[in-house]
Amino acid sequence: MLFSVICVRAQVTDTLGFDEFYLGTPVLYSSPNGGYAFGNNGYGDKAKAQTYSNSDSYTLREVLLLFGDVVNSSGDTASVVRVTVYDNLGPGQTSAGTVETGAPDSLLTYVDIAVDQLLDDGNLTIVDFSSDTMLGSVSETISIGIDLTHLSAGDSVGLMSTTDGDAGGSMNAWELAANDLWFTVEESTFSWDLDVDLAIFPVIDENDPSAIAEQIGLDWSIYPNPAVEQVHLTFPEDNEWRVLLTDLLGKVLVSEQAIGGSIALKMPGLDAGVYLVSISDGNRTGIKRLIKE
Questions:
Q1: Distance (Å, rounded) from C-alpha 291 to C-alpha 282?
Q2: Distances from the Cα of 192 to the Cαs of 48, 64, 72, 196, in angstroms?
Q3: If you count Cβ atoms within 10 Å of the first and of the last residue's Cβ in the chain, which end, N or C, has fewer?
Q4: Distance CA 285, CA 116 (A)
Q5: pLDDT higher than 90, residue 139
C-alpha cells in the first residue's frame, strides 16, 4: 500500500500513535550537557523523528506535537522548528549496534513553524499539512520529525516522550546526530539508551476507515465531541468502569466509577483545549481525545 500527501479534505480517521503514547507516562528528558534529550542540546543533535507504519494508504492532514519547554529569547522571527516527513529507506544504527535500512532517509516535505508559535503549556502544537504540495508516493512506513537546525541562537525546545520502557522495544524513535547519522534513541553508545516514543502524532485521512480503531480492544463512544459542559460515554458492556479525564500531561482532572452501560461526565471549570478520556475495566483500556470548547 502507498502513502500520499495530497491536497484533499476527507474524514479524519485516526491520530497515529496518540492512544499508545498515553498508555505510558509522558516526561521531558533533560540532556546532561544542557538542553533536552529530545530537543536541541550541547551534543549538537540535528533532528528527532518517530516512525509510523499503516496497513492501508492514507493522506497526511496535520502533525500534533507536545513540547515540555520552549525558550524564545532571540526574538528572531526567522527562528523555526521544521516539521519534516521522511521516507524510511536509509541506513541507521539500531540498539543492537548494527546498521540497518529502515531509518529516516529522504526528506519528502516539511512545514516550518516559528518558535513563538510553539506551545509548552500542556496543549498540542498543531502543524497543518493539508495544503501541502508534495507530489508522488512513498512507502507506507514514514517518519515524522522535527529539524532543530533552523533555531536561532538562544532559542531551544524540548519535546515530550514516554518514560523509559513504555515503548516496549518499538525502536521507532530516532535522532540525527551531529555527524549526520541516524541512531535509534535506544542505542546506548551514541544516543540515549531510552526505550521511548516521541510526542509526534500524524493526523491522517484513512482510505479504509475500518482498518483503524481509536480504542484498544474496546468499542465505546464519547459524545458530543467537541463538548461544552459535559459528555456522555457509552460502554460495550454493563461492567464496572473506571473513567478518568486528564490533561495531555497525564494530570487527573476528573475521576469517576461507572457501573452499567453509560455515564454523563461533567467538565466543570475546564479551559478550552484538548483533553483525554480513558476507561478501564481492569483488563482492557481505551483512550480517546476530547475537545473542550
A1: 26
A2: 12, 23, 26, 10
A3: C
A4: 36
A5: no
Q: How many other C-beta atoms are found inside a 10 Å radius of the C-beta of residue 61? A: 20
Structural domain boundaries in the chain:
2-209, 213-292
Average pLDDT over residues 224-248: 86
Return the amino acid letter for 100: E
CA distance 97 to 93: 6
Composition of the chain by helix, strand, coil, percent to 5:
5, 45, 50
**Residue 81 burial by CB count (10 A; 0-12/13-18/19+): exposed, middle or buried?**
buried
**Coil/strand/helix, residue 270:** coil
Answer yes or no: is pLDDT of 9 > 50. no
Question: Which run of H or E residues covers position 113?
Answer: strand 107-114
Mean pLDDT comparison of 11-15, 18-22, 203-207, highest-scoring range: 18-22
Residues 241-271 have pLDDT tens digits of 889 888 887 788 888 888 878 889 888 788 8
* DSSP secondary structure letters along 51-101: EE--SS-EEEEEEEE-EEEEE--S--TT-EEEEEEEES-EEEE-TTS-EEE
Fold observed for domain 213-292 = Immunoglobulin-like (2.60.40)
Pairwise CA distance, residues 106 & 98, whole Å? 21
pLDDT at 192: 96
Sheet of 58-65, strand order: 14-15, 200-206, 58-65, 125-128
